[in-house]
Amino acid sequence: MSKGQVLVLGSNATQLGLRSGSTATVGQYLNETAVPALALLDAGYDIVLATPNGTKPHIDAGSDTKDHFGGDEAAYQRAKDFFASHPAMNDVRTLKSVVDEGLDGFVGVFVPGGHAPIVDLMQDRDAGTILRHFHAAAKPTALLCHGPVVVVAALDDAPAFRKALEEGDDAGAADLARDWIYSGYRMTVFSASEEKIAEEQVLKGELYFDMEKALRSAGGDVSVTDKNFASNVVVDRELITGQNPASDRAMADALIEALDRAAA
After folding, report:
1. Which of 108, 178, 206, 217 has the least CB density, counted as fewest CB within 10 Å?
2. pTM higher than 0.90, yes or no?
3. One-character DSSP codes across the chain
């Protein structure tokens, strides 16, 4: 018997604009999607995947490697098979449909990373509605790597906040975030120093803003590790955030622990 349904918010973004005017091809990270999702299934929970337009997320090519699975070929292949063929990864809902049908039946929510969520989910109105529901109900809310920046979708005008970040308008961004529901929460996110490496080696260009600055501008109490790509998970009330791809299993464990505690 299922312990309950966890809602997974996926991204449909495949292109990310860079400061140079060029774009980079992006997507969700395979391990950040599959490792927590499989851990939830193994722990007895069901998962429901929803995206802005109701189509399956694109997996970032840079994540399609066993390197993100500790070199474990079997774990890598299990993740690939899961994403390709598991019903939960193919019966995709729209964010709007899950909002319209009601969120009370979900016991938790999870947002994977990769650069894609900072394009669409970060400023998606339905994602904001979902986050506000889980916050008000104090239900476990877990976000990984770049996923934590999606919490700004809960702002009254997330697109304007994102635009202020792109324009370097720190005062304007802070003003737009005055009533943010996560103000003062402790959290982590893909660090500015990790982003520099990603910009140089993967994106081949500079982002308009880094994730640390985005969350601090909104009022988050952001902390990251001194060592790049070291696992780091921060838990504050219902909010569970993981810093980078290496945090996938630790974040999943923290989420499952919170879900089990809430059920008990």
Report:
1. 178
2. yes
3. ----EEEEE-----EEE-TTS-EEE--B-HHHHHHHHHHHHHTT-EEEEEESSSSPPPBPGGG-SGGGGTT-HHHHHHHHHHHHH-HHHHSPEEHHHHHHH-STTEEEEEE--SSGGGTTGGG-HHHHHHHHHHHHTT--EEEETTGGGGGGGGSTTHHHHHHHHHTT-HHHHHHHTTT-TTTT-EE--S-HHHHHHHIIIIISS--SS-HHHHHHHHT-EE---SSTT---EEEETTEEEE-SGGGHHHHHHHHHHHHHHHH-
